[in-house]
Amino acid sequence: MTDVRDGGRLVAAVDIARAALVDEGQQPGKHRRSVAEGEWAAAHYFDAELAGYRGWQWCVVLAGSPGSDEITLSEVVLLPGDDSLLAPPWVPWVERVAAGDLAPGDLLAAEPDDPRLVPNQIDTEDEFRFHSESADPDDIGQVAGELGLGRRRLLSYEGRADAAQRWYDGDFGPSSEMAQAAPFSCCTCGFYVPLAGALRAGFGACTNEYAADGRVVSAEYGCGAHSDVAAPKGEGSPAYDAYDDGALEVITITRDAEPANS
After folding, report:
1. Cα 66 to chain center, whole Å?
2. Cross-referenced InterPro entries, in alphabetical order (predicted)?
């Protein structure tokens, strides 16, 4: 038998490397170079004709063994070239999302251990607790503020109704584009803080910095950053499947070795 190492037959076996790619369902482009990888292996590089992979190359590794004239396919992998279009360094979405990024129809799930949210049975001390038998002066002052004591004038029924209608019909009401695309309403969200007084049942303030932060919102308003939104599953783009360029599939084939035509 002929020693595969003799005459650089692995380096010259361009046709075998190209055929291996075709067998894998790929359409390789121009053959760029062949590189000996030790005594019994050679790597062949072809232009990758894949949309979105500008400058990438297919690497086909062929192998042989002493005393045999057979050439074996060792592996096929997609590799970036010197001028390849590469994705920027991956950054977790929680570090990329900023206030104002949320658009109608977007879903923004809070992390399970988000420090801004706690189970509803935990007392966060944001509700007024008043016990007549042990009244604290600060608590009494809070009650006075709730009732409007100490203010010369208070909002009338008409004033409250006008404000409520304006907020209800506005950008943070149930008829807005954002609310129409939302899966949940604000009244069930952990980031929703109801207003005090007569408007409590219908309106509150949003405390989510990625949503309507600091705005008065209708209890029937909603957005994709609701505290109960589930995190998306899976990888890649919703529109396109990601090509798995990190997986190596080792396939062994046997062919009669034929030197490449020069």
Report:
1. 50
2. DUF3027 (IPR021391)
Query: Pick from 234, 106, 229, 228: which is nearest to 178 by CA?
Result: 106
Number of domains within the chain:
2
Query: Under 8 Å CB-to-CB from 158, ≥6 apart: which residues?
Result: none
Hey, what are 111's tokens? 């992390």
Q: Are residues 81 and 113 in the same domain?
A: no
For residue range 160-195, what is the model confidence (pLDDT) as tens digits? Answer: 899 999 999 999 999 999 999 999 999 999 999 999
CA distances for 113 relative to 17, 110, 191, 214, 227, angstroms: 51, 8, 15, 23, 12
Domain membership flag for residue 233: no
Are residues 114 and 214 located together in one domain of the fold?
yes
What is the domain range of residue 194? 108-139+161-218
Q: Is 79 a member of any domain?
A: yes
Give the pLDDT confidence of 109-134 residue by residue, as tens digits: 777 777 767 776 665 555 444 444 45
